[in-house]
Amino acid sequence: MVSPHRPTGPEPPDALAAAAATGRPEAQAAWFRAEHPRVYRLCLGLLADPAAAEELAQDAMIHLLDRLDRRPPGSPYPAWRNRVVLNLCRDQARRRAARDRAEKAAAGRVPVAPPVLGPVERASAAELREILARTLAELPPREREAFVLRDLEGASTAEASAAMEVTAATVRSLLTLARRRLRRLLGPVLETGEAS
Amino acid sequence: MSDDPADRLRRAWSRLEPPAPADSWRDADPATRRAVGWLAAAWERVEPPAPVPLPRRRPAPGPARPLLAAAAVLLVAGLGAVLPHLLVRAGGATEATAAAAPPAADRPRLIATRPDRVELRAGTVHLTLLRPPAAPAGPDPTEAE
Fold this sequence. Notes:
Oligomer: heterodimer
Largest interface: A-B, 67 and 45 residues
Shape of chain B: rod-shaped
Radius of gyration of chain B: 34 Å
Strand order of the largest sheet of chain B: 1-2-3
Shape of chain A: globular
Number of strands of chain A: 0
Helix content of chain B: 40-55%
CATH class of the largest domain in chain A: Mainly Alpha
Order of helices and strands of chain A: HHHHHHHH
CATH architecture of the largest domain in chain A: Orthogonal Bundle
CATH topology of the largest domain in chain A: Rna Polymerase Sigma Factor, Chain: A
C-alpha cells in the first residue's frame, strides 16, 4: 500500500514539500510529480466521482502550492495535506449537493442512474477507477472519509480524527461501519471471483 | 464480455494482487480483509487520467496592492495637472491650451486612503476607487488547520 507516512522514493513527502516551499521551480516540479497522483486518489476516494476528482485535484494542487510556505510549523506535511484536501472535498460535495437539489427540483424527478461504461472507459485503468469510485460511493460521506484516510491512505487514527475534526472513538466507529458495509457489498462477488 | 457490474468487479478483482495487510485491518475477519485488501490494491493502482502541467503559482494578494493602485492614480492625476504647464514652457502650446490648465485649487487632492478604497477630489469632481469585495466563497479550507 502506498502510504504518505512511508517514503516511496528518494525523498519523503515532508522534504519534497519543504523544498517546494522555497519556490525553486525544479523542487516544485518534483513535489508536483509526487503529490498529484496522491491528491487525485484522495479526491477520488473522498468524492467517489472520477470526473469531479480530476478537476478538484488540479484545484487542490494549486491551493496546496500557494500555501506550502504558510504551513503550520511542526505539522507533518501528509497530515496537513490530507486535512486541506478533505476540506476542499467537503466544500465541493456541499456545492454539488446543493446543485443536485436545485436540478432535481427543477426537473421534478430523481437523478437517473449513471450510464453504462462505453468502450473507451472499459479500458483497465479507467474501469478500475470507475469501480473503485462506485464502490466507495456506497458509503455515507463520513464513513468514506474515515475509510479512505485510515485504511487506504494509511493515516493513523489520531491523524484521521484531526483531519475530520472528530474524536478518535468516532473514527474507529465510522471505520467499523464502513468495513462492515464494504464486506457486505463486495463479499459475495469476491468470494465467487476467488473460487473461479 | 458482460457489462454486469458484478462480472466487471470479478474481472477487475482477478487482475489485482492485494497488498500485505496494513496494521489497521490486519486483524479483521477474512471477509473484511478480502474486501479491504481488494480496495487497497485498486487504490494503489489508481493514477490520474492524464498528466497535468505544473500550475503557475499565483501571487498572494497583499496589502501593497491598494497602495500601488493609489500611487498609479496619483501619478496619472499629477501628470494631467502638470502636462499643460510643461507644454507651455516648451513653447508648443497655444494660449487656449495654457488656459485649459486647471487652477491650483482644481488639482486632484488625495482625500482618503483605506484598505478598500482611495478617494480623490479635483474641484467639484470626487473620485472614489473601490477595491472589489472578496467573492462570497465557503470557509477557507486551511482555516481549520
